[in-house]
Amino acid sequence: MPAVSKLDTAGSFETADFPVPNGREEEWRFTPLRRLRGLHTGPDGTEGGEGAVSVAVEAEPAVRVETVGLDDERVGASFTPLERVSALAYRHAAGATLVTVPKETQVERPVVVAVRGERPGQAFGHTVVRLEPFATATVVLDHAGSATYADNVEFVVGDGAALTVVSVHDWGRDAVHVAYHHVSLGRDARFRGHAVTLGGDLVRVSATVRYTAPGGDAELNGVYFTDAGQHHEHRLLVDHSQSHCRSRVEYKGALQGDDAHAVWIGDVIIGVGTEGTDTYEYNRNLVLTDNTRVDSVPNLEIFTGEVLGAGHASASGRLDDLHLFYLQARGIEAEEARRLVVRGFFAEMIARLGVPEVEERLTAAIERELERSA
């Protein structure tokens, strides 16, 4: 019998506890399984494995960077896989990259974790980012190159700590990436996550936020530009199992070209017995050409009446003719008017990133996309 609630989904580190998806499951019905290159079935023996994807970390001296085995007690401590690919990635990763920001440390420059696809074949990875109590840091996950890759990333934010994460998915056009981001927030901890998805043939990012104590505050933002033939899928789950916690989710995307497909699934759970939850999730999609597809599904499960605020919204549509007319009536050419509207659509989200290098990179990428569509 299928799960009625997300809370009914059983997690496990054992791959055998998850049947191979067939595409009829709720969590896989939007994903073209044939394009996963076997990541949902398991290692296929193709040339790949260790070395197919490299991970390098650039950080200030105060930040501890280690490469550890999967038997390290700090690996896998903050989550349990909810899908088969997550369990496969945990079982078959060669090791884990562990980044630790010590207690009360304020890291000035972003910690950059560069993930590079080096050669074809399946690869699996694991990264753990740990902020000890009252630490503050910004982490950039920068993905590029060609790969068939699945990984788990744990973000463990201690009491009173604040972590900002910018995850850039700028893969080569032939790459496949299935990622799982697991966020664990301590008392009064703060997390700001920004997903930027531009490249790849298929990119599927699932982010989960869990509160371990009251007072946690999470914001999940995303920007994606999906071109012809690309599949970009973002799935969010925020589990408000603790009282007096806040969450905000906002994703914006643009699509152009034949068979461009964007998927956004937003799940928020407000648990039994909790009080003072404040949550809102929102997805907007700008459709620039014909023959694209958008699937946008916000879900809200509430198991208590003691809620401060809860809501969700989704909107997908073409450029507003009124906006274009307003600009053209003031002497702006049609194509430039179109560019201005698209820039304005993304401007606020780009400004939130807080990392100038990434902001400039994303702005330039959007300009290239607009030139291509022109």
TrEMBL record:
Region: Disordered, residue numbers: 1-20
InterPro entries (UniProt xref): Fe-S_cluster_assembly_SufBD (IPR055346), SUF_FeS_clus_asmbl_SufBD_core (IPR000825), SUF_FeS_clus_asmbl_SufBD_sf (IPR037284), SUF_FeS_clus_asmbl_SufD (IPR011542)
A Pfam family assignment: SUFBD_core
Entry's Gene Ontology BP terms: iron-sulfur cluster assembly
Domain SUF system FeS cluster assembly SufBD core: 121-345
Family listed: Belongs to the iron-sulfur cluster assembly SufBD family.
PANTHER family: PROTEIN ABCI7, CHLOROPLASTIC
UniProt protein name: Iron-regulated ABC transporter permease protein SufD
Organism: Allonocardiopsis opalescens
